[in-house]
Amino acid sequence: MIGRIAGILIHRAPDHVMIDVRGVGYIVHVSQRTAQTLPPVGEACALYTDLVVREDLLQLIGFPSLLEKEWHRLLTSVQGVGAKVSLALLGTLGAEGLGRAIALGDWGAVKAAPGVGPKLAQRIVMELKDKAPSVMALGTDLSVDLAPSEEVIEPAAAPHAKRPAAPAAPRVNYTAEALSALTNLGYSPADAAGAVARASEDAEIAQDTAKLIRAALRLLAPKD
């Protein structure tokens, strides 16, 4: 299984790119959103990948984060969703938007992706709504973009070793903390995910665990 491609971007199209890895060009199919966010042609890039194997096809699908790759795995478990539809969904909504739509049962947002009709959109929401919370809880842990590493390019001979880069500061996963708090209070994962998704629509609240929990609790409170 090829899980990662790192090299020099030598061609970009709306739905695929070609990456040169030490003289071998790999065609990787990507969403339009991913294609637009990659660096200019001639620069180093890296993608997580999934290999599609069929009798008449070997195809690499590329993702900028493990979070998108995990959503792709879940999406393609739904009958009628192949790589093309999965990339259309991720390209239209992004990983966070897709998770929010599924958690809220918003099949109308899912239907906005090219090639997704009402019945398929409803099936995706119905089959993945209970699975969405676990992926949303992983959120930040899987959403770190792949920066091109030094191993992308053959190392040049140098008289002095490079100083190792300082480790990145850990990022807080506000969604995961809020989901954990709500489920510990007895709410079901699906209800908790839906409330957190709605509360997260406010950018200020989404970046503060305490505010996110309070907002979600207000949404979960019984209505008179």
Which labels suit this protein?
alpha+beta, OB fold (Dihydrolipoamide Acetyltransferase, E2P), DNA polymerase, domain 1, Helicase, Ruva Protein, domain 3, 5 strands, globular, DNA recombination
Molecular structure report:
The protein is α+β, with helices and mostly antiparallel strands. It has three domains: 4-63, Nucleic acid-binding proteins (OB fold (Dihydrolipoamide Acetyltransferase, E2P), Beta Barrel); 66-131, 5' to 3' exonuclease, C-terminal subdomain (DNA polymerase, domain 1), CATH 1.10.150; 174-220, Helicase, Ruva Protein, domain 3, CATH 1.10.8. The chain is 46% helix and 17% strand. It contains ten helices and five strands. The chain has helices at 32-37, 66-75, 83-104, 107-111, 118-128, 132-142, 174-184, 189-199, 203-206, 209-220; strands at 4-12, 16-21, 24-29, 44-54, 57-63. A five-stranded mixed barrel has the order 1-2-3-5-4. Strand 4 (44-54) and strand 5 (57-63) form a beta hairpin. Helix 3 crosses helix 6, helix 3 packs across helix 8 (189-199) and helix 7 packs across helix 10 (209-220). The protein is globular and about 60 Å long. The N and C termini lie far apart (54 Å). The model is unreliable at 152-162 (pLDDT under 50).
